[in-house]
Amino acid sequence: MSEQRAKVSTVVLSYNRPALLREALASLCVQTYAPLEIIVVDNRSPASEEVARVAGEFPSARLIRNDENVGFAAGMNRGIAEAAGEYVYLTEDDITLDVDCIRQLVEYAGENVGDLIISPLMYNKAAGTVRCAGGEVSLGGVYRRRTYGEGVRDEGQYAQPFDVTHIDGAVIFSRTEFLRRLGCFREEFFMYVEAVELCVRASKAGAKMAVVPAAKVYHFEPPPRANQSPEFDFHRYKNLFSLYLLHARAHHLPEFFFRYALLALVRATFGRGGDARSLLKALLWFSRRAPSLLRERRAARKTEAQGTNAGVSVSAGGQVVVRD
Length: 324
Fold this sequence. Notes:
By secondary structure, this protein is α/β, with parallel strands linked by helices. It has two domains: 212 residues, Spore Coat Polysaccharide Biosynthesis Protein SpsA, Chain A (Alpha-Beta Complex), CATH 3.90.550.10; 80 residues, no CATH class. It has nine helices and twelve strands. The strands form two sheets. Strands 1, 2, 3, 4, 5, 6, 7, 10, 11 and 12 form a ten-stranded mixed β-sheet that branches. Helix 7 runs parallel beside helix 9.
């Protein structure tokens, strides 16, 4: 890295994909914006020694090795904690960047004062279709998350930056200080909806969220999987339950838990979808955490109310993310 202090720190989360990591790092090293601080955070895997060798091929990259797989949330948080730049860009080992990506993000951020989380436009690398152009989340009685542009061709419909209410965690660009002040990702989420929860908190803090289409990245398509693992189901259930208890409006909670806990358990028990064992494990985990999550919810509501009474513009999520 140049002796000039990098204004942007990039955090590349790695897990068991050294060949893809090499391409991701190569794309960072040819960015038109420089210098960059490049931090590779490797979650322990069978390929960790090869990951270390690949990272060593790039003198500007600094490798942080976790002793175990701590998950997406904690892995990214470790990188954010080490970042020295004014801005931080979060990415993964299966994503390559267009050469002008970071410059476009920096320029947009510089034109917008205040707290923000922005994202490039993400494409499927092989198919060339849009993978993610941001999206929106609704925490009503039915959980809904919509990804904009998924699977369509870019025919110029994304000409200008546009606001969103959800950004994928693997393409987040923000001021480092803001992410730290926000509390970064919830590490107990490990994986699944961790970016949704972060974006809900960012919305409540009044942050701007937008996609900058001039910044482009390319995601290697993951191999097809017939079924998700029981571990994935466990995290999916427990994190959704936690997300709702922390952030959804109170009058949506009964319907949500009836649908996604009681009815889901009945369906899984009778083999109509889902893994009953993973759901029961998640419910047990959630029952132990619920008291502390409720205390956190009450404290957040109190802070929001105080901010509103003081004349501070604070979104409670009802207009942007948490909809009635």
